From TrEMBL:
InterPro entries per the UniProt record, alphabetical: Killing_trait_RebB
Species this protein is from: Pseudovibrio ascidiaceicola
Protein name (database record): Killing trait domain-containing protein
Domain of life: Bacteria
Length: 113
C-alpha cells in the first residue's frame, strides 16, 4: 500500500464501507422531516408560553390599576367635608316641605265635612 504525503496510507474501498456510509446518509435524510417538525412544535410551544405569560402579566397590571383607582376614590370620599355635604343634603331634602305639608293638610280637611 502506498502512503499519500500528509494523509496516510491508502485504504482500498470495500463494498461494506460504501454501503455503511450510504445507509448513514439515507438515515439522516429520512430523519430530516421529523426533526424539522420537532423544531416547529418546540418553537410553537415556546411562543404559546410567552403569549400566556404576557396575558397573565396584563391581567395582573389591570388588577393593580383597579385597586389603585378604588383606593383613590375612597380617599377622595373620606377627604370631603362631611359637614358641608350633610348641610347640602338636608337643604335638598327639605326643599318643598312646607308646600307638601299644606297640601297634606288641605287633603285631610277635605275628608272632614
Amino acid at each position: 500500500m502506498a502512503d499519500l504525503p500528509g494523509i496516510g496510507p491508502v485504504i482500498p474501498e470495500g463494498g461494506m464501507v460504501t454501503d455503511a456510509v450510504t445507509q448513514s446518509n439515507v438515515t439522516v435524510l429520512g430523519q430530516a422531516p421529523a426533526i424539522a417538525m420537532g423544531n416547529l412544535y418546540a418553537s410553537l410551544a415556546h411562543s404559546t408560553g410567552i403569549l400566556l405569560q404576557n396575558s397573565v402579566a396584563s391581567a395582573s397590571q389591570s388588577t393593580i390599576l383597579a385597586q389603585a383607582t378604588t383606593n383613590m376614590g375612597v380617599m377622595q370620599i373620606y377627604s370631603a367635608n362631611t359637614t358641608a355635604g350633610a348641610s347640602a343634603t338636608e337643604k335638598v331634602a327639605q326643599a318643598g316641605t312646607a308646600d307638601q305639608l299644606s297640601t297634606l293638610l288641605t287633603t285631610l280637611r277635605s275628608f272632614n265635612p
